[in-house]
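Lecture 7 notes: from sequence to structure.

We start with a single chain of 123 residues. Read the sequence below before looking at the structure.
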Amino acid sequence: MPELHSDTIAEVILLAREIGESTQVGAHDGVRHRSGGAIAEQEFRSFVSSLTDDEKYSLVAVLWIGREDFSADEYDEALATAAREATTPTEDYLLGIPQLSSFLESGLEALGVSATDVEDDLM
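Now the structure, written as tokens:
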């Protein structure tokens, strides 16, 4: 089971969506809303960098489960791999993942946690 609370993962999901929405708005109207996207990215980076190393590894493990690199039954293996392969700041790694929020949601669901319920509790 994840080393961090599902509400922490849900917060990362919401922040990742906010970054994506800022980017999409700029792409649709032809105007780059750099300040909105930059603020969202700064919030994301600040939140993720404030997590403990174990929480960061768990976050990456949930991502990998959602991306189907590992199954939910392989959580411990995914966690150990995340710890062993951590070479860049987690926030940089995560920001480079297309569909980050979807993968995290899928990872939570695979682990038996309703991402929608957790997100609703945060809102």
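Residues 6-29 form the longest helix (24 residues). Keep this in mind for problem set 3.
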